[in-house]
Specification:
Number of helices: 3
Helix content: 25-40%
Shape: elongated
Strand order of the largest sheet: 1-2-3-4-5
Largest sheet: 5 strands, antiparallel
Number of strands: 8
Radius of gyration: 22 Å
Order of helices and strands: EEHHEEEEEEH
């Protein structure tokens, strides 16, 4: 994640290129299997039908998995504008662009959202907690390091004047 700041605007951008690379890899390898099963293998006429069907099916699953990985990892940009008292969440992904805006008065604070990874270890994402206690996940790439994500949360809450600058105990050490 990258942060750009000027006196009236804070912009946080997340570009999950690694996930796109993995999704593209899955799609390309799966596409090769689909192509081969549809007649692209040099010995296509010698391969039993059940093997062609299996190659096609497994390839189609890999292509779908790759597209799903890319779909789940959009470019996220959070624009916090002090002049308009507004937070704008922009997401650009595989199937288009989506923007959502929130007034400062609708937001309780930026917060950490804890999930579990495949092994049961905690992973942390940046989120927004609204006044009605609804939590909205912002980042598509959760991290195992709580401290790194907490840094972004502190900066955003401080910029929105939702907490005092001296509140961060990490700065006191």
């Amino acid at each position: 994640m990258r942060i750009k700041q000027n006196p009236n605007e804070l912009i946080i951008q997340e570009t999950p290129g690694c996930l796109w690379f993995v999704g593209l890899f899955f799609s390309m390898v799966g596409g090769t299997f689909v192509y081969g099963a549809l007649g692209g293998f040099s010995n296509w006429d010698e391969v039993p039908f059940w093997q062609l069907a299996l190659a096609f099916f497994m390839g189609a699953i890999a292509v779908a998995g790759g597209i799903w990985i890319i779909y789940q990892a959009p470019i996220s940009q959070i624009v916090i504008d002090r002049i308009e008292d507004k937070v704008l969440l922009k997401r650009r992904g595989l199937f288009g662009k989506h923007e959502t805006g929130y007034k400062f008065s609708e937001i309780k604070e930026f917060c950490l959202i804890e999930d579990k990874d495949d092994e049961g270890s905690p992973i942390w994402s940046v989120g927004i907690e609204l006044i009605n206690s609804e939590k909205i996940k912002i980042t598509s790439m959760p991290l195992h390091s709580e401290d790194i994500q907490r840094k972004y949360i502190f900066e955003t809450n401080e910029f929105m004047r939702k907490q005092m600058p001296s509140y961060n105990t990490d700065l006191l050490e």
